[in-house]
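User: Here's a chain of 171 residues. Predict its fold as tokens.
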Amino acid sequence: MAISTGALAAISIAATAAGTGMGVMSSIQQGKARQAQAEYQADVARQNQQLAEQQAGAQRREGYDNMIAKRQETARLIGRQRAAAGASGATVDVGSSLDLQADTAAQGEIDALNIYNQASDKAYGTQLQGWNYGQQAAGYDAQLKSVVMLKNHASSLPQKERAKVWQPMRH
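Assistant: Prediction complete.
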């Protein structure tokens, strides 16, 4: 039993059309998956950005609080120095006692400012990390916009049964 050339051509065209249709459907599904993944990653990056910004603010507040604590510690140290000098009978507001208090105050202020600067530097690094997360989110948003999806105009996909298939004319 031999199959005619026309029948073979029709079967070949039908198989090609079916394969193309399946390929299109697969591409649509892949596009939807890429779209969903890009949306998810953009949301995660935006949440990370917000968390980094909150953490940077907390680091700045902690640095300020530690600076104030250092200044208070320095003031207590100067008070102990004055009390020790007064207990020994020395005048606390002149001479070497005054020099010692001034040096202690200056060094304490330097230490307090260093504590605050270190916290500010750490907060700035965290802020930059948050900015990077924001850039990642923008990148995912751009990726989302670039996902090319086949539009299903007039509900043309999937094909209806008994659709007309073009067949070459026989001569």
